[in-house]
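Margin note from the TA: students keep mixing up input and output lines. Inputs are the sequences; the output is the structure of the whole complex. Example:
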Amino acid sequence: MNEDRYFSPEPAQRQVARALYDEVKALPLICPHGHVDPRLLADPNYQWGTPVDLLIIPDHYVFRMLYSQGIRLEELTIPTRNGVTVDAPDHRRVWQLVCDNWHLFRGTPTSIWLRDELRDIFGIDEKINSANAQSIYDALSGKLASDEFHPRALFERFNIEVLATTDPATSTLEYHRALRESGWHGRIIPTFRPDAVVNIDTPDYDLQIQRLSEVSGIEVKDYQSYIAALEQRRAYFKSLGATATDHAALTAYTKRLSSGEAEAIFQRALKGNVSAEDARCFTGHMLIEMARMSIEDGLVMQLHAGSYRNHNTSLFERFGPDMGADIPTAGEFTANLKPLLDAYGNEKALTLVLFNLDETTYSRELAPLAGHYPALRLGPPWWFFDSLNGMRRFFDNVVETAGIYNTAGFNDDTRAYPSIPARHNVWRRASADWLADHVVRGIIDEEDAHEMIVDLAYRLAKQTYKLGGL
Amino acid sequence: MNEDRYFSPEPAQRQVARALYDEVKALPLICPHGHVDPRLLADPNYQWGTPVDLLIIPDHYVFRMLYSQGIRLEELTIPTRNGVTVDAPDHRRVWQLVCDNWHLFRGTPTSIWLRDELRDIFGIDEKINSANAQSIYDALSGKLASDEFHPRALFERFNIEVLATTDPATSTLEYHRALRESGWHGRIIPTFRPDAVVNIDTPDYDLQIQRLSEVSGIEVKDYQSYIAALEQRRAYFKSLGATATDHAALTAYTKRLSSGEAEAIFQRALKGNVSAEDARCFTGHMLIEMARMSIEDGLVMQLHAGSYRNHNTSLFERFGPDMGADIPTAGEFTANLKPLLDAYGNEKALTLVLFNLDETTYSRELAPLAGHYPALRLGPPWWFFDSLNGMRRFFDNVVETAGIYNTAGFNDDTRAYPSIPARHNVWRRASADWLADHVVRGIIDEEDAHEMIVDLAYRLAKQTYKLGGL
Amino acid sequence: MNEDRYFSPEPAQRQVARALYDEVKALPLICPHGHVDPRLLADPNYQWGTPVDLLIIPDHYVFRMLYSQGIRLEELTIPTRNGVTVDAPDHRRVWQLVCDNWHLFRGTPTSIWLRDELRDIFGIDEKINSANAQSIYDALSGKLASDEFHPRALFERFNIEVLATTDPATSTLEYHRALRESGWHGRIIPTFRPDAVVNIDTPDYDLQIQRLSEVSGIEVKDYQSYIAALEQRRAYFKSLGATATDHAALTAYTKRLSSGEAEAIFQRALKGNVSAEDARCFTGHMLIEMARMSIEDGLVMQLHAGSYRNHNTSLFERFGPDMGADIPTAGEFTANLKPLLDAYGNEKALTLVLFNLDETTYSRELAPLAGHYPALRLGPPWWFFDSLNGMRRFFDNVVETAGIYNTAGFNDDTRAYPSIPARHNVWRRASADWLADHVVRGIIDEEDAHEMIVDLAYRLAKQTYKLGGL
């Protein structure tokens, strides 16, 4: 284990980086955006499955790489959309297959995260290979069965201060309610994600609206009642601790519809009779509406733009979404966000955190926008860019124009619960090394760097997401 | 003060960088493009206002960042477009507010420039903070009132060899005439910027044309007289020392219109009856016409493309242009410039210097174009990219394909007069460090590097802009 | 000569880089894609011309830079498209002109390649300048006349294991046949490049089809016979050792036509009556068809997308193609490739190697695509990006998402035969330095790095292009 890992080899810079990292390595983890299943923590008797259930099957970073080299998802016992695993689910064999191909991950964040997880969480300091695959499997299995690996025990060991999940607008948040009622002290909060009730061109849209009516107690029969139902859900989420909403879209396109236009489109949507252009306009309009609601109820608004979901048609038909086949597209914010910013960009009461998958927008559009509009913050590098190079490019392209105080700090955005500490560790080390470079070049002084590392590692996320008490 | 600031910490590289920088640090400054008000230098009795008048109110880099964090322009006593400053203009309070928030600029060029200005020009070596804000204000005020801080005294202390201003085509250049007549030796030259008489869709276009008629003495009543009036203005600018023109456009779109088409659009423009497409075509056509005129009169042509001006509508309505709300857009040159290049790209008599705000075009389009067409040169990194990382990306993306001899050296492009030395200093240090990296990696030898640093710091700008005597 | 050239100056990294490079510096060269004329090697009595014939006239990297600085192609005795060299071809004078302007190439790959060629192949260790131009010319001339500089002798000295040429679909491959029959052991293989018979909007398309009928022995009179003729040619190329095809297109646009649509367009093409949209659709369709054929016959498919060919109209009219006036354009793969990937992206039997000239697609589209689809591999940085910075950006943007095992290793893609070793040397050094950075930062360990350097320098190219025996 290399205590100076990810730092520059240059001795002067490395020394500064180490000092900065030491300052924050033990700070609690702020996890304001991610996809951990709240059930893990709500159930005091939750049992992990096998190491493959934990580390392979839910992790599309892992199986997309294996798939790219010709290993079928069936071989990895990934369930199809009907829940069928075609091959007999022999997880020992799957684990062996993964370990036999572990060289594919050389130089990737996945290899870093798993190495850190095995060592720091499971106490396994061996390098994965074909020969030790089964003994590592045994070691992992043994640990997972023990009480100290229960999700709540890990939550404390990980030193998580707050963990936000991501939940559909129609969720009853039953696990969050159970958590609250359990008396356990861990702070787990929901996040309001209304995509399914906003994307009017999805095949089951009528069912989504029916469900929205049920959970909100408001019969959604027109645009006005639809808005009321959404506001009800936001209030409900807030009552269970939510401080943020989250919105996904192919682009950042926004557009203000008149009430008449919005009503007309929504009526077509209720009848299942919408065009792609209807859907585009309605999503663009609802982003502006959601910004308005955020100003009213104080929920931080997140926008994740740029992913072409389910690009691999036949794979999607067989296995469903989140199979590693979402591909980024070119992004545009300057024109697309203008209607929203014209409406609410100057509002200090709005915090809109932008995420995207086209790094060219960092220096060209996002940093200039965030360095001007009071409402905007930039989310950390997302998804494929949650990596050492991704972070360096983010810092190098964003900070000169927007500073660090128009960024939102870090979030791990993971569904892989045990990888949370490793992901924050990479961010903290990358931040320390980047700051150290600026110190040794005389761009900032050490005093400022010691402030900035705490901001980057802890304070910015907490403050941006209104997680209290700074 | 760190004599090796901005250089790599690696000792071998740092040593080479320092030697290269030492070679050019005392060379005169060539300032072929910028926005300094010629009045400063024309008036031998010019009096600076307060430190806020000097350092905050004219600097959109500064107030855009403060604005992004919720500080209103009114609080900074920025005048509205009607010239009204809403709050009582208490500049001591403004200065305190800026200093209280100076942490926002950590890691930005603004923080570097101001630190250098305070130290090198005003002799203030303290780091700005809330506590010392008022004493720094006092020190600045005292200096600004003294003779040695008159703009002409600073011009000499800055060691400026030549300073170009940027002036509307309809300007009478009265301050430039006054400068010439004053007998003062400083070389201040105008630059011909015809945007206001080329952008036919601006609301006051008729007034612009009326003014053009007046100052040129040519009654502009059709396309032919319009061209004649523009040629007259160029000749007039040239007679007062101009060596260049400057053109701003949202994109680099060019298009050759027939005389009939040009005339028809121009007649509609005179009647105030043009479409957006008319305006786009006419601008695209006039860029080609301006290139033709440049071949004839020898004026270097500059094109600044890619800024979405006045993006924040409500701010624009209240405060007018140049309020830090101009946002870059994606750029395209390969197709857009083709009509112009088909006409004049092979002409050695044309020098067209390209600036843009989309760094992705550097390696993809601009360097390949400039590395082929005799007429093209690449301007230095512009605006948000006038920064250490911006310069490094420029060098790394441009030089392998275009070399340094298809670049135009540096220009500071500033309206912040006292920041000129700091900006050139950053460029010279960044150039030295970049060259040093190439020396220690054995890509170029020290002999070449010592030639190149002088080219980058001094000769290329002088030669590109035909500023004489190399 | 700097044994550590191109490596980081940081001592720890440099030491690792050197060790990695030492491991591969003597490995044979795998050259699976390039444009060397097979005649050089087929003719046992081949005579080089002058140094200018060898090093200047065929190298558009060299003369595009000279042209950009106002040196006419006529001055360089580049032949016009009619084969006329306008000025008297005094190659000594041309060489002097090149050397007088050699400073233009400072910091470019061309300067690195030529320096290496002169030193390592011709034993000339002087830096080119005006004074030594003629003596270097003499030395080069002398060497070129000697037997040890015959292309076959150089082939052995270069330690080339296999060299692929690029050949039109209608080629009879006479030089490849001659090579096979000559008994010489060098492995020279053709590559099937069908662009001229696929691009239906070229003026001489009827002649191309006539030629296709002749060489295939299949009368091409409809879409079906056209496909049959193409399949016949592929089989013929394969019989002479081809393992790959190559396809150039302005974009990566693909589109599945019905047989009826394909037939209708093809019939219009035979009549010379096609629209630009016809051509675009047909090319997009044929890329899918070629993927199908690749699955059937096993030929690796290469796609080079993104070059706006012959951008300089007047130069093209006078001198023809490949005059340094091809300019990159913005690229898009996520949507453009989807029809092809929907059809064959999940096929392990297909290897589609993607090349492009828009580096922004590396991290945004290409790495995410290649890190998922079994059929995809990423070609090395192409053309303007076959450079130290180009390679570094490629690694930094691709590997975190796609790993190195979804890349295709290196190919030199050159028509400048004597530059082959220099180009591979740059790649091997750049790879070693990039890996060394990862080792000293603790991202990968030395054991993995020693595997990866051999993969990057040798194995990946050999395996991707099915060149046998790993």
